[in-house]
Amino acid sequence: MARGETQKLSFTVPIFEPHPPQYYIRAVSDSWLQAEAFYTISFHNLSLPEARTSHTELLDLKPLPITSLGNDIYQDLYKFSHFNPIQTQIFHVLYHTDNNVLLGAPTGSGKTISAELAMLRLFNTQPDMKVIYIAPLKAIVRERMQDWRMRLVSQLGKKMVEMTGDYTPDLMALLSADIIISTPEKWDGISRNWNSRSYVTKVGLMILDEIHLLGADRGPILEVIVSRMRYISSQTERAVRFVGLSTALANASDLADWLAVGEIGLFNFKPSVRPVPLEVHIQGYPGKFYCPRMNSMNKPTYAAICTHSPTKPVLIFVSSRRQTRLTALDLIQFAASDEHPRQFLNVTEDSLQMILSQVTDQNLRHTLQFGIGLHHAGLNDKDRSLVEELFANNKIQVLVCTSTLAWGVNLPAHLVIIKGTEYYDGKAKRYVDFPITDILQMMGRAGRPQYDQHGKAVILVHEPKKSFYKKFLYEPFPVESSLREQLHDHINAEIVSGTICHKEDAMHYLTWTYLFRRLMVNPAYYGLENAEEDVLSSYLSRLVQSTFEDLEDSGCMRMNEDNVESTMLGMIASQYYLSYMTVSMFGSNIGPDTSLEVFLHILSGASEYDELPVRHNEENYNEALSRRVRYTVDKNNLDDPHVKANLLFQAHFSQLELPISDYVTDLKSVLDQSIRIIQAMIDICANSGWLSSSITCMHLLQMVMQGLWFDEDSALWMLPCMNSDLLCLLGEKGISTVQQLLDIPKANLQAMIGNFPVSKLYQDLQHFPRIQVKLKLQKRDSDDRKYVALSIKLEKTNFRQNTSRAFAPRFPKLKDEAWWLVLGNTATSELYALKRVSFSDRLVTNTELPSTQTTFQGMKLKLVSDCYIGFEQEHSIEELIKKQ
């Protein structure tokens, strides 16, 4: 640990009755004599929450047949004949009432089908209202989309849309949708401006999957959207039904109170209540260092398979992509030592060769030969889908995967092995424990209702933690709020939307949150002595005041005597879903003539990249990459996520080969977030009237989309068929942009490029638009003044199959084309107006010209693409005025 560096450690300690007066913490050096520190923790004013864990007893009821739905079409949605015991017990409340429901039950209990009962109820009683389903991970959203598309969409004729970082439906799709499946972040961004978005107020049912993740990193967003939907419901006087789905909860009653769930709607079943009983084995392993300890667990992992599931499917959860490979290779070695190297493979040799021919990843191709699959985010979609299909169809017996599979894809197995309960946290730069909820989710994949009488889970842990897991796997922690850590951004969003105008409004806003409920129940967790009214009021007042002051210091809001109002930076942060610290940093560092290098540094420094993982020893890869990129980075901070982001951007622009597959996934994540960050930077430049910086920032966005340097690479490299010889040949003809090629007839093009196949080039050119711009000045009168308006007509004059889809093969996501209309003076570098437009075939729009005659001198209108390099057009307004 370096001088001045702070390290945070969290651990649990038992507290006995009666409470001890104090505990001692002693830190002792393992290297130096008498080098130790001593700290006393007093329990004098400790206030513990009431132990109110109450579980719902599973009643001995006769299973309900699906005919209870009373609708033949609904019955056809399900392949089973009877609901399971949990679904039977909660059927009436979900399907025959509009009560809010909180369902806590183990993984594999059929909670999704339970939620569908509430959906069918809404379809029966309020068919014009919408269902919003919130899932914490894109993988869960994808699974729901696939499942419901086959059933609810195709069989019931319902319209469904997905809202994730990968997909944003258009307004018409949202207005007509019956079901919206969204991540918390997307719905938060959409619902912030609920007053102007009618589809938000048309929500009749909100389903919150994995609601126990309120206490996790993204919990504050989940907390805010539920609080906002409850607030919207009270303001519009339209009831919104809430259905929360969770694992078994320690403080279900608090969560139920917050969701306005009455006694009738609260179901909190014990973890042991499963359709398929689960047998759990916890084994401890010594060893101070992580990697050797993981290695020592491989032989017991193989032994567990041979003992508990020699022929049935096995899921092995590990902490990293590297561990998936190392674990699989050791399993292959152990199987070979037993003279059964292919004991996990259930396909013929011919079928195996056909399967292997479809696999891209070399490690996966090797392990599949022995019936062992790998599953992690580093695989491409095709490989991932293939290995899921092979495991689901029992063609391979063992699947080694990272923890994300537990949440994303429903692939149950007879045996689940959790090989280690820690993972490397790049931000903390150390190994930390998986949340208990993740461990329970992984265990929940054991036991297949159709095939198994019972499931088995083997948990391999660090020896000192064995007793901890024995206790807390069946006594879950209470769900606490983590809203305080992210309160600034949410308060800023409510100020922008007009919900908060005064300090009292902010205090009232907090009373809608889960944080407020937990403050009253467990004040000590949040640093309060007790939960008396004056103590709570004083705490909330200080919390709001400090939040306001931080937002004001960052330039996101202004405080007057009685009210608060948003600034341009605050509005941009809310609109683009950015941290207030990010836009504050932009406001401080962007100037009128900011260079491309500085813009790249500013972009990489955004708070949104704080969580970019820098894994163990990746600083070595970063150091090697830093020697190959164009701009220098801070060599003293190669383990900093922002330095890594900078390197990934530069590698993308230079099309460098990345050192490992993890970096490919990391680059996708970096590029995914960059669009809205750069758009926010452009808005800041435009609001400041800086033409040069605005244009440079637009070029940066083009670079991100095309994976090219704007000022070093030829724009012709956007064409997939381009090579050095053809580039040189076209350069000799004076052609340097795709726009120039689009203006050349096909016959002339063939003569120009000689032996190069013109059809290939012409096919690539069909992806790009040819834009025609027509300008017209119009004098207009209003009540108090006369002014000149500029009418702008844009038209795409060439035929294309996807008229508005951007062609960007090096960008990992689909994106629609957009264009900036920039009105400015190139001589003075002033920007007068900026408008971002998108259109399929043609568009007519207007903008008002500055009123003073002198500003017309040097005034120009620029058309700039947000995705294509070299597609700029410049039109002189001064010349246009002279002509008219």
UniProtKB/TrEMBL annotation:
Domain Helicase ATP-binding residue range list: 92-267
Domain Helicase C-terminal: 299-507
InterPro entries assigned to the protein according to its UniProt record, in alphabetical order: C2_domain_sf, DEAD/DEAH_box_helicase_dom, Hel308_SKI2-like, Helicase_ATP-bd, Helicase_C-like, Ig_E-set, P-loop_NTPase, Sec63-dom
Gene Ontology MF, one: helicase activity
Gene Ontology CC, one term: nucleus
Pfam families tied to this protein: DEAD (PF00270), Helicase_C (PF00271), Sec63 (PF02889), WHD_SNRNP200 (PF23445)
CDD domains: DEXHc_ASCC3_2, SF2_C_Ski2
Keywords: ATP-binding, Helicase, Hydrolase, Nucleotide-binding
Matches recorded under PANTHER family: ACTIVATING SIGNAL COINTEGRATOR 1 COMPLEX SUBUNIT 3, DNA POLYMERASE THETA, PUTATIVE (AFU_ORTHOLOGUE AFUA_1G05260)-RELATED
Protein's name in the database: Uncharacterized protein MANES_06G085400
